[in-house]
Amino acid sequence: MPSPVTPFGVRGVGEVGTIPPGAAVANAVCDALADHGVELTALPITPEAIWSALAGRVAAREPELAPTPADLPDGGVEY
Questions:
Q1: Residues with Cβ within 8 Å of residue 15, at least 6 apart in sequence
Q2: Which InterPro entries would you find in this protein's record (predicted)?
């Protein structure tokens, strides 16, 4: 049955296949970044947004320091 709202009476059938892939890719990127403690909350997800998020996480992380003798259970006393 021809569509009454389009100039040639055609109906769209191809749009449905173009919607899910974008969401699947965005979900895959967010899932991969979750292992690194990064959460993207804005679109579009561009390479620059990913690099900035990763760089921000690294910059915000405090460096892990080795324990000082005072941090040891025996107070750093050598036997």
A1: none
A2: AldOxase/xan_DH_Mopterin-bd_sf
Predicted TM-score (pTM) of the model is 0.53
Bond prior to 73 in cis (omega within 30° of 0): no
**Alpha-carbon span 38 to 50, nearest angstrom:** 9
Split at pLDDT 50, 70, 90, the class of 42 is: confident
How many Å apart are CA 25 and CA 50, to the nearest integer?
Answer: 13
Sign of the CA dihedral 35, 36, 37, 42? negative
Q: Is 65 left (phi over 0), alpha (psi -120 to 50) or beta?
A: beta
Q: Are 2 and 9 in contact (CB under 8 A)?
A: yes
Peptide bond into 63 cis (omega under 30): no
